[in-house]
UniProtKB/TrEMBL annotation:
Pfam families: SSI
Organism: Kineosporia mesophila
Localisation: Secreted
Keywords annotated in UniProt: Disulfide bond, Protease inhibitor, Secreted, Serine protease inhibitor, Signal
InterPro entries xrefs: Prot_inh_SSI_I16_CS, Subtilisin_inhibitor, Subtilisin_inhibitor-like_sf
Protein name as it appears in the record: SSI family serine proteinase inhibitor
SUPFAM superfamilies xref list: Subtilisin inhibitor
Signal peptide range: 1-41
Tree of life domain: Bacteria
Domain (Subtilisin inhibitor): residue spans on this chain: 68-131
Family statement drawn from the similarity comment of this UniProt entry: Belongs to the protease inhibitor I16 (SSI) family.
Length: 161
């Protein structure tokens, strides 16, 4: 009997092929297309952004100068019960970034008292949170206050005493 040995395949040589970069790129592209399709709100394929929950500017202004007065102010369009909402919104557009920001702590200020008046402005301005406290305790604070005229009431020498 002639015994011939037949070669058996080596089982350890059988490796599962790994997906190539082209296959991975195709899968990623498919996922992106499907995700875009899910964001569509109609058959036309257009995507509609969400409406903003309210005005980008919605402030409460509280001024104390012997008595306390509180106003509300919205901009775009100007509204609320502020006595001059349009001018107040224009003032915010012009000077709001500097006047509503946090004052520098290392700034030298004249020690000239401008009056007992204080104000707090809270809410949102241009969609960002605002929590500003203003006074007239020194020259820097008086300048901040004056930048916000007519958002804050103009003070006279008689009121400042």
């Amino acid at each position: 009997m002639d015994h011939q040995r037949t070669a058996r395949p080596n089982i350890t040589d059988r490796r599962r092929p790994r997906p190539g970069p082209l296959l991975l790129a195709a899968l990623l592209a498919l996922v992106a297309v499907l995700a875009t399709g899910c964001a569509s709100d109609s058959d036309s394929g257009t995507v509609t952004p969400q409406d903003a929950p309210g005005p980008a500017t919605d402030l409460t202004i509280k001024v104390t100068d012997g008595k306390t007065t509180t106003w509300s102010l919205t901009c775009d369009p100007a509204g609320g019960d502020h006595p001059d909402a349009s001018a107040a919104c224009a003032t915010l557009e012009k000077s709001g970034t500097q006047a509503l920001g946090t004052p520098a702590t290392d700034q030298m200020c004249t020690q000239i008292f401008g009056g007992e008046q204080t104000a707090t402005i809270t809410g949102t301005w241009k969609g960002k949170a605002v929590n500003a406290s203003l006074s007239r305790k020194d020259g820097c604070e008086v300048a901040r206050w004056d930048q916000l005229d007519p958002l804050l009431p103009k003070t006279s020498g008689a009121q400042a005493r």
